[in-house]
Amino acid sequence: MPPQGAIVAVLAIAGLASSFMFTLVVPIQTRLPELLQASRDDTAWVVTATLLAAAVITPIAGRLGDMYGKRRIVLVLLATLVIGSVVAALSTSLVGLIVGRALQGAVTGVIPLGISILRDVLHEDRVDPAIALISATLGVGGALGLPISALVTENADWHALFWTAAVLGVIVFALVLAIVPVSVLRTAGRFDVAGAAGLAVGLLGILLAISRGEAWGWMSPATLACGLGGVVVLLGWGWYELRIAEPLLDLRVAARRPVLLTNLASVAIGFSLFASNVSYPQLLELPAPAGFGLPLLAASLVIMPSGLVMMVLSPFSGRLAGSVGPRRLLILGAIALIAAYGFSLFLASEVWHILVANLLIGVGIGFGYAAMPMLIMRSVPQSESGASNGLNALFRSLGTSVAAAVVGAVLAGMSAPQNGRQLPTASAFHVSFLLGLAAAIIALVVAAFIPLRPAAEHHPALPADR
Q: What are the beta bridge partners of residue 131?
């Protein structure tokens, strides 16, 4: 077997590549209508498609990894990233770019699968620090990727962004193939195709309503049909999953108190993270008096240190979790997020104020994202680790999706005309910070009720040859 440090490093690089996809198009997002000769509502699908694909594929990929080998599914997802990047790089139309971005979104499943691989192959003493590092890549990749995307956009044609992603995908694919060992722990049984289809349809309905509600109208027939239809489908999916012998996801395991509360906290933590991702960059880039009027590259350099904080804290997070427990680590993360938004509510008049707030966001997300998979891994059987981590990633995605829609609606709705443009007011950013603060408080309260003791494993994993 390759050195354990090399395995962790490769999976961390894979996680960075995965989270980088979410900020890949940020530098060109406002220019897409002009570049593609399409309306702003239509070009919004370039971002929405990635979000939807990530949310749908991640829990399904986790189950496939449990059954057919986690490394194998990681390689499939990385290959999908490469294909999607090439499709987007060759596209000159909106449809091609949307298809490519949807395929890129599938790679998000690499992070929960990587965390599950760590549990399978690492010595027990090294698991928590390694999980903290992989979890940190969820925030680090986006924060570090933003200035890289800005540099590429300023110095090359926008298609170069996707060629860069394709090359990155090929490199990571080769590294995983060469260094990450083949999974030996597998879950017996058949893949629940009907359950996967039901989950996909239900999630698509809800996420479409959340992500497109502002453009369609929150009470429009399309939004209500997608949202309510998604809820109905998911209720039927849950009823079906509880009654079959080999479900896509064992909902009885997901309903265990530590797992359920961790997933609920994940929604709040995800909301709190993305509220900052939506509000702080706009505050930095918008012209005065609404913002600071920084160019994209300068604004991204103010945001980037939060990712560096997450990376630096990751080994410390693992050791801290070993001494105080992941629940207390999650509580510390929520407290840091509360401090970040509390600071922004009182001090947001200078660029350094935003830098300080982002550093606190980095501490909060670094601790919170490290703690959540540790709590999950301590509470589920090893045979359910891939699917359960995928479900946790889904809950984080729900939080970020809701934040993108709600904070986006606040900034758009609380705007005023300035130099012929509708720009968010200072009150709009104030409300956005209040929403991020409320989410962090909810995460803190939920985390306080997570049991300290992990649940016993009821049905251990089966070897691959069984």
A: none
